[in-house]
Amino acid sequence: EIPSALILEDDFDLQEDFKQRLGSYLAEVGDLPWNLMYVGRSPMENDVAKVSEHVVEPGYTLWTVGYILRLEGAKALLQTESVRNMAPLDDFFSIAMSRGLDGSYNDRAIEWSAHIPPTMRALAMNPPLVMPYMGSMFKSDTAMLRTKTRYVRDLPLDSADDTLRPDPRCVISPTHAEPR
User: Fold this and answer.
1) How far apart are CA 5 and CA 105, in angstroms?
2) How do strand 55-57 and strand 122-125 relate by DSSP bridges?
3) CA–CA separation, 7 vs 63, rounded Å?
4) Contact status, residue 18 vs residue 48, Cβ threshold 8 Å
5) pLDDT tens track for 35-59
6) DSSP secondary-structure letter at 15?
7) What one-character-per-residue DSSP string does 69-88 give?
8) Helix/strand/coil for 96
9) How does residue 127 score in pLDDT terms, banded at 50, 70 and 90?
10) How far, in Å, are 71, 72, 73, 92, 129 from residue 68 at the CA level?
11) Exposure string (b/e) for 94-113, b if CB count within 10 Å is 16 or more?
């Protein structure tokens, strides 16, 4: 059992003095109870509270370019049966933190919150220690979604323009779909 894991997406860029600052920022939170620590993020609403000099309790947050997930948080995610309640991971985390439920950023947050229990106790490093590398947002799966597109199954199977198509490995055919 791994007590915690640093998870980095394929487009991460470590910021200056990453290793030293990561250790220092983690020491700032001491024994505070958290199960998710954003190491890189894009805040969509104001932070809830300042916890220490370099750590905050985040509001609604996008990007999962870098985060630390503790074992307790991983187990909590498994218990939510998240595979049955698919949403972009950054939205899933924010709703699991009970953020954005006024619908001001995500118009489906209230609907999704009925299926995503409040299991995450998140903190965020501020300033971030990981950012997407320059230009990666132009290749982002979620950044380029059409308005109102939220699930892989909502993406068009065929389109007149070739700018966006779902990865065929992610499309579940109706004959192979799990019962709801």
Assistant:
1) 29
2) antiparallel
3) 12
4) no
5) 999 999 989 899 999 999 999 999 9
6) P
7) EEHHHHHHHHHTTGGGS---
8) helix
9) very high
10) 10, 12, 10, 16, 12
11) bbbbebbeeeebbeebeebb
Tell me which residue has tokens 């799966």. Answer: 141
pTM: 0.76
Q: What is the mean pLDDT of the chain?
A: 81
- Give me the amino acid identity at 75: K
Q: List the structure tokens of 116.
A: 């995503």
Q: CB within 8 A of 161, min separation 6: which ones?
A: none
* Strand segments (E) across the chain: 4-8, 12-14, 36-43, 49-50, 55-57, 61-70, 122-125, 130-132
The two three-digit tokens of residue 56, written as one number: 């905050």
Amino acid at 131: M
Q: How far is CA 147 from CA 104, 118, 142, in A?
A: 15, 26, 11
